[in-house]
Design a protein that fits this description.
four-stranded antiparallel sheet, about 110 residues, alpha+beta, about 30% helix
Length: about 110
Amino acid sequence: MASAETLTVQTTTDSAEKATALARGAVEARLAACAQIAGPVTSVYHWAGGIETTQEWQVLFKTTAARYQALERHLLSAHDYETPEIIATAVVAGSPAYLSWITAETVAR
């Protein structure tokens, strides 16, 4: 089943505790149905004129297109990075029951 209405949204942070806080905050606010944390991962990137190598934790949120802007605002306000990674990817197919669950769990109450 295709679903342009369902998104995965990814961010990273520099500790497991911060990743958990970002995940819990978004799920508690119903901005995401769930969030998965993976890490540590090694990130290599350009920053402030140099190349950095750090350990980070990835957080992958399951949400809807209708809740994306609110999730982005939440991440920007809760995140301590100057320029946090916030990338949304459309879900092109998925289990109808799972996609329906994401929609049901992200309705503001």
